[in-house]
Amino acid sequence: MKRLVWAVLAALVLAGCSAGKDAVVQGSSFSFVSPGGKIDITYDAAQRQTAPVLAGEDLMNEGKQLSLADYAGKVVVLNLWGQWCGPCRTEAPEMESLAKQGVQVVGIDVRDPAREVAQDFVRDRQLTYPSIYDPDGRVLLKLSGYPRNIIPSTIVLDKQHRVAAVFLRPVLAQDLLPVTQRLTAEA
């Protein structure tokens, strides 16, 4: 079973890739490419590219828009999740732990057609960080080349909202805290 999961993960990552040896295609906008099928990718400041402005309806506040632009000048942990996803259920308290430590976490709730079920998930786990509701994946389309089928996954943005790290796997707060602390300390 574990081999099957890794094989599917590798196939999805490769399917989302474009040609090139670097993790980021040259240019000013972020375009994802997984070098050698890595699942933890970090970018030096010189390699970072600007993430698109991701925005959509706030999961918990119907009719209200939520945008990464709302967090200008802040390091942001962008977490892709769904209430239907087993690893997301384990990861959610880790994201909440980060949020309680002052890290700005923003979720993107994907492939949850029943908004009420996703809202119950948030309430039951007492999650306080905001999430964009993206049942049909339209918000994620702005992430060029990003594998939309790898849920959960996490993107860490620096203060200029350039992509500093990508985790194509479930993460713990202890995986992300050193990254966010380093990025917060950057000039």
Report what the structure shows.
The protein has 187 residues and is of the alpha/beta class. It is 28% helix and 19% strand. It is built from 4 helices and 8 strands; from the N terminus they run αββββαβαβββα. The strands form 2 sheets. A 6-stranded mixed beta sheet has the order 1-8-7-4-5-6, covered by helices on one side. Strand 5, helix 3 (115-124) and strand 6 (131-134) form a beta-alpha-beta unit.
Label this structure with key terms.
globular; 8 strands; alpha/beta; 4 helices; 187 residues; disordered N terminus
Summarize the SSE layout with pairings.
Blueprint: H1 2-15, E1 40-42, E2 55-57, E3 65-67, E4 76-81, H2 86-100, E5 104-110, H3 115-124, E6 131-134, E7 153-157, E8 163-167, H4 173-185
Parallel strand pairs: 4-5, 5-6
Antiparallel strand pairs: 1-8, 2-3, 4-7, 7-8
Helix-strand topology string: HEEEEHEHEEEH
Which residues sit in consecutive blocks of at least 5 with pLDDT less than 50? 1-27
- State the helical fraction: 25-40%
Q: Main sheet: which strands, in order across? A: 1-8-7-4-5-6
The rounded Rg comes to 16 Å
Helix segment tally? 4
Class from secondary-structure proportions: alpha/beta
Largest sheet: 6 strands, mixed
- Mean pLDDT over the full residue set: 86
The backbone outline, from C-alpha atoms, is globular
Distance between the termini: 45 Å
Q: Indicate the proportion of strand residues.
A: 15-25%
Quick one: how many beta strands?
8
